[in-house]
Write a structure and sequence with these properties.
With about 160 residues, the protein is mainly alpha-helical. It folds into 2 domains: about 55 residues, no CATH class; about 90 residues, no CATH class. Helices cover about 55% and strands about 5% of the residues. It is built from 8 helices and 2 strands, in the order ββαααααααα. α1 crosses α3, α4 packs antiparallel against α6 and α4 packs parallel to α7.
C-alpha cells in the first residue's frame, strides 16, 4: 500500500501495489529514472514510487559508486583493445575525477539521499551519448556531476551553476 499525493499536493490517495505495477516499474526503469532525474516526485505515481525505492536501496547506491570508480579506472588505464565496454572520454573523466570521487563517496555514505540525484547518476552512467562517453571537446561532465551532487541532498535547494553565474 502506498500513499500518493496529487500534482498540486491537494489530495492524498491510498493505492495498493499489484504485480502489474511492479513489473511495469522494472520494465520501464529507464523512463522512470528519466522522470525522477527531471525532478518528478515519487509520490505522484505507484510506479515512480516503486522505482524510487529501488534507486534508494543501499545495494543500488553501492553498485552506482562501484561503477563511478570503474569509470575513473578505465580513464586511467586507457582504452583496452578487446574490451566490450563503452570507452570513456579520458580527458573529461580525468578532469572531473574529484567530482566523480565525491559522488561515489556520497552514494556510499549512510543516510537518506535525494532520489533525483541517484537517478541523475544512473543516467550519467548508462547513457552512451552522455558526457562521460562523448564530445571530448566539451566541458559538460563537471556540470552534470555537480548537478547530481546537489540533487543528492534530500532537502532540495535552488540549483546554482558551478561557475557561479
Amino acid at each position: 500500500m502506498l500513499i500518493l499525493e496529487g500534482d498540486d499536493g491537494s489530495y492524498v490517495e491510498w493505492r495498493g501495489v499489484g504485480i502489474r505495477d511492479r513489473l511495469a516499474a522494472r520494465l520501464r526503469a529507464a523512463r522512470l529514472d528519466g522522470e525522477l532525474a527531471a525532478g518528478s516526485s515519487p509520490d505522484t505515481s505507484v510506479r515512480l514510487s516503486l522505482r524510487a525505492r529501488v534507486l534508494g536501496r543501499t545495494s543500488t547506491r553501492l553498485e552506482l559508486a562501484r561503477h563511478l570508480r570503474g569509470v575513473i579506472a578505465d580513464a586511467e588505464r586507457g582504452r583496452r583493445p578487446q574490451s566490450f565496454r563503452m570507452p570513456v572520454c579520458r580527458r573529461k573523466v580525468l578532469n572531473a575525477r574529484p567530482e566523480l570521487e565525491e559522488l561515489a563517496t556520497r552514494l556510499t555514505a549512510p543516510g537518506v539521499l535525494g532520489v533525483e540525484g541517484i537517478a541523475l547518476t544512473r543516467r550519467l552512467l548508462t547513457d552512451g551519448r552522455g558526457p562521460i562517453y562523448t564530445r571530448p571537446g566539451a566541458d559538460d561532465l563537471v556540470i552534470a556531476l555537480v548537478e547530481a551532487l546537489l540533487a543528492l541532498d534530500p532537502c532540495p535547494r535552488p540549483l546554482e551553476h558551478p561557475s557561479g553565474w
